[in-house]
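Two proteins follow. First one:
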Amino acid sequence: MRYWLIVLILFMCAVCGDSAAAVWYVDVDNPAKPWKGTSWARAFVTIQAGVDAASSGDEVWVAEGTYTATVDCVVTMKSDVHLYGGFAGIETLRSERDWTAHETIINGEDARCGVIGANGATLDGFTVTRGYKVYGGGMYNFDSSPTVANCTFLHNRAGNRGGGMYNEGISQPTVTNCLFVSNGAYSYGGGIFNDSLSLTVTNCTFWNNGAGNTGGGIFANSSSVTVTNCILWGSKVDEIGGTPGPTVTYSCVQGGYPGEGNIAADPFFVNAGIGDLRLNPGSPCINTGTAVGAPATDILGIPRPQGAGFDMGAYEIQAGAVAMTSDAPDPTNAVVPVTVMFCEPFNGFTATDIVAGNGTVGNFVGVDGDTIYTFDLTPVADGLVTADIPGGVATSVAGSLLNNAAPQFSRTYDGTGPTVAMSSDASGLTYTSPIPVMVTFSEPAIGFSDTDIVAGNGTVGNFVDVGVGVYTFDLTPLADGLVTADIAAGVATDAVGNPNDVAPQFNRTYDGTSPTVAMTSDAPDLTNGVIPVTAKFSLPVNGFTATDIIAANGTVDNFVGVDGDTVYTFDLTPSADGLVTANIAAGVATSANLTFALTLTSALASSTARFASRLR
């Protein structure tokens, strides 16, 4: 008897040992080899390696980081193998992970699908993004029934159906506490397309998904689909499509949808524009879900419910929550009106509980006395203006619950108008026409045109908006002298409406007249000696030398600059009887006031010399 008892004990131990689930580890940043996946120190570097190593019932723990592949799909799941993301890479218990702090990303790189599902498999704590496939860009389930929880499906696309997820055949997936954000399908089901045996979607949030035909959020075609406690909002088309459509209850659906407990009011997200799909206090989705089938926690691990009932969507607002919102744009150039909302009635909240940064609090009003308050936040100087409400400053009317600290409210204040200046590569005294001018605003300007430039002794042309507050134009002088351009204050504004300051006047002195030159002599026209010649320019010039004088039947000698730049003298010595000439060609000298070559008027001087027979 004792022998058989020992055998039975050994047999049971063996059975238990064989059936115990194993944990496989994956860390894309693990440099160590060999990669055996048996510990964090020897973790695989791809999720697929962990899945391939696992057996039925095993878990694959995946550390934070971005995982991709070169095959058709980043991850192909295996039946009854459970994938968990959100690890830092040091944990010994699954409960220690935090998929919000340690985001684990499956990235299809817009070239392949993210995940292929499997029966009994689990996908929990992942962000699936940029998946692309004709059917099921983010996740593809054919005859498979995985459990998907605490996942985000973001920016996935399908060439036909199911941008975020595609279900077909005898599949019966369940999807809980998930976000479907900005997914798209060419035809049907931007968030989820379903043509399977059944699908259960609970406490999920769908935002900004789109489809070419119908079902921007969910499309259900001849299938049994149950949607509970969900939010479907912001789709490019109708949120729900298909015949027959899904059974939807206790959900917030844009445009409305028939079903018990459904609403169609704005869910009032914290900031959907930047992807914050948490609920603000005052949201109609708070406490309006059902307890039937609701998960015990939300996508952040916050226990449900926090209030009198379960919330719709992936996020459960925390008890004692308070938030501040405003319709003021960001940035702004005005006083910022702010609304404070508590998730339930609170006592004891006053203006002194609001801590302003770079601003002051005024005009504090209790709108309903215990839940909604308004105040004005007046900026002190340009820059970030903030308001904080610390935790514990108010107490709930229903009991002793203290408020949580509010997320910081902020706006960027810009009360300074743009400055503007004009510049040019042309020198202060110039002969260039037209004069190229650049206009530079200190920030991008709105409403500025060529008609805002006032020219003096010139005209404005060839106006070009270069971009980012920079413009160019040509200033064409009308006459010699000062040429100016002015830009008045208030002809343009910055992005928030602040008018520009007046620009310093732009000016250049224009000299478009070339100097002339003439040669004269006191010698008679018929002479018998050396001829003294004076060359006189109409303006001071540079660069004039004796070599610039071309003598015919004579030579140039004794060249002297009398005043250095206007009057010059030289002797013209005849070589033989007959006509003796001197020429100064155009362009041999430049105006002394300019650095640019100017056309000079050609000068000609001549004398006829006849030598007496006594001259040899």
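Second one, unrelated to the first:
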Amino acid sequence: MTLNNNPFNVLNATPRDSTQRLKELCDEYSLNGNADEIEAAYAALTDPSARLAAEIRWIDAGSLGKGAGLLNALLQNMETSEFGIDAVIRIAKAFDELTPHSVSVEINESRLAAGFPQVENLAAVGEELKNLRADIRNIIISRLGKFGIEELAEVVTTIVENCETSYYAVIDDIIDYYKTQKRSALDEQAAATEERARYLNDQFELAKKLNRENTAYYVGIGQTSVSIPRFCTCCMAETHHTENICYSVSEKHGFTEHTKTVSLDFPLCDDCVAHRREVKEKKWLLNIISMLSGIAITILTAIGGVLVNLFFMPIIGTIAVYVFAGLLLKTRELSDLHSNKINSVWFSDISLHHSGVIMNFTNMFYARLFAESNRALMQVKKYRKRVLREGVLQSVARPFANALFVCSIVTGALMVTLFAISETSSPRRTNSRPPSISLPYSIPSIPPMVDFEEPEVDYPPNGDYQNLTGDFEIAPLMIATPNDRRYHYVILKDELTGKAAFSLFIHPGETVEVDVPLGDYRMYYATGRVWYGATHLFGPNTQYYKADTVLSFRLEGFTAEGHSIELIGQVGGNLSTSTANADDFILDE
């Protein structure tokens, strides 16, 4: 029974009103109010046994005594206002002042005035006081129910500390309520913990399986503060050590560049730090082995004199060593708890203008905990993990980019070596000249001019040459011609095969310096004044010669050895020649 539905309140009556007065009030209010409620209130007040509950709960300091009147006033205030600790303490004190005897005395005085039978059964009064205590408890609990368990503990502690005595019946009820709520909260927490443990165990087994699959998990969050679970991002081990993950994004507007950097510390256990360090160390060991192998091949081919022709060998050798050594060098095998041998968390995007970031994880279990902690969603994407692979080549991130780095170092060493060879072998880049060879002095014989039906052709440019072998032109060759109006067409033929290897056209009185392929050659040359093309040369007036000495063009260490030839007759000339045939100047297709 509450104060609002108390029969005295319904009829607007007092405990001293007689039966006749109660009947008048009932008839009066039945016309304008709820007749059923009015009749029920009238019946309760005219029944001596039912009337007792209404009398005890009615607010009337004059009829029910100081304690009861104060108590009912406080209860009315408690029902209609916010919870107050002072009000609870006053209610507890007021209720403890009520006894069955004192209450029955006050009730009997009112009943005597109203003409109702006296209350003689003190036990009945005691039972109604117990019911009143229960009502008080329910009213107070209804106000305490808005507090959480921690706030409730603070409120109850404050109430107990402000009481004058260690025991009040109402305070005891409040303490019992707190104990019940605390026990219920602990039971719920234990049940939730047990359920959580089962859930985590199932998820843990699933996570160990997913750690071996080529998947990654990304979580997008938008808040400025990020909650980071204190477990290793790779293997979920508890740890206090962290690694810093940093990511920056820039955007340029006109001449102003805006940059935003996000840095977070994620947990990483000692074991995962160790296996990451091992992968990095063996990766650099692989790089060093590959680079040294490529440089060694470069030096050996240079010493052997074949580097220029086989310049690609150091690169091929480096790649081969990189692949085989990368497969032979092993890293330790990781347990099912680990999700990757290298990075287990990284940024994939951050917003320049907002607080949003996207985090990527290789461990599904950690990704889910991170998403739950930050009230975000976890999504799955394809990602090549390296946890199952033991070879260093299969364990490192971006192995092809790493291979390009190694090859670039070897290529740099190769270019330096080729440049050194070129510098030391080219006569145009040194002060030294090849030994001079010249024709012995003789009076040139000029044949009579014979008419020719073929049309004349423009002379090729001075120094125009053709490399017929396709090999690299390395060894120096210099040829000087006399200023006697005769043009010279020179051919070098391989001494072993007899095939033409190099051709050269020289104007009268000119000196030409060219590089020719390495080899042993015999020189053929034709002279004349009118040019009819490579087929007819100088027509019927052509004079054909060949050198009696084989000319060798070789590499001596890093120096290419060639020849300097003067086709000018000199006293003491050392180049003997003999007459050649026109067929000797036919170039092989």
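SUMMARY FIELD: The mean pLDDT is 81. The radius of gyration is 56 Å.
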